[in-house]
Amino acid sequence: MKINIPYAGKEVEVEVEDDKVNAVLYPNEMEKKDEAEVILEALENPVGKPRFSEFITDGTLFIVNDATRPTPTSRVLELVKEEIQKYDVKFIVALGSHREPTEEEYKKIFGEVYEAKKENIYYNDAKNGEMVDYGKTKRGTPVKFNKRVAEAENVIAINTVEPHYFAGFTGGRKSFLPGVASYETITANHEFSLKEDAKTLKLKGNPVHEDMTEAFNKFDGDVFAINMTLDKDGDVYSATAGDMEESFMKEVEASKKVFGVSIDKRSEVVVTAAHPIDVNLYQSHKALENGKLALKKGGIIILVSACPDGIGPRNFYDLMASIDDPKRVMEKIAEGYKLGYHKAAKMVEVCESSSMWCVSELDEEVTKKAFIESKKDIQTAIDDALTETGGKATFLIEGGMVVPKLEK
Q: How many domains does the chain have?
């Protein structure tokens, strides 16, 4: 069997004997719809809010995602360009704790709107930006949001909803936390990701999600949300606008249909390609989280991700690199949590019972310190893993998006 695996902006063909393949998983095929019609229909018929054209005004602030997310912000803005040009609106990139976008990334995010509105575009500086205090959640998270958001006449948040390995799903309330929150707020919230109920597809009882939602509800401004679900090609399959929570929950159901893929057995080998979140190891880790759901205990999971930007935010990596024994990682986290440590904890969970390999542009010594064994190419990694385990393989072609669900 020949299988095409996305890597470094192209597809790499590998060959595996048919009887060595359990499954090749993609997001589910959905009925193709006219993207513009789907978005405009949502804007014209929002839930619990006036139409988009009646909501936008002078002083409106748009919250948009950074370039690590697949959100088609530029295509949405293009559809409402006439309304945007009528008013004095501003934009803030919901970086959370990520770095500032590059010029190229700004252009990717905003498309044709960028040149006309670049003087009104800002980003969330979680560590040094001015924040407004909204108190604390019942779990003790200090709620601090960017001052520009607090002072806006009203807010329009543009988001996509996909499975998320500890918040349950992206989108919705994540525009605010972590999007435009302080570093202190993000750190306190993300510590809950160490809890057992903080996992993909789960919202009820998920402490991260519930804390995010409570934090968002402390914001006293008027918010119009645009939540969308993409299909496997990155086109908008579904969209709901209006009230933040209602629109988010509707798109959660759509997201389950696209990204939740049934499997009937786990495999000794799982190959998980991080595309389209393969920018760095920090983001690519999500493909490991999804991949492990299809992996047998004692198996080998192979991460395929070029990681052109290297490690990304380093706290998780520096922790792992400072310790020889993965068992000690959790002890170190217990001594004092720092933002990013949740990622180290999740990776250690995998390597405690299985082996992690990768094919990337990262140096072999760099991955070794994260308890990951580097392989020179995808075909070699697959062949070696199948030989070593004597088992079969499951392939996640978009491992950052596909969520295997074991049918009992």
A: 2
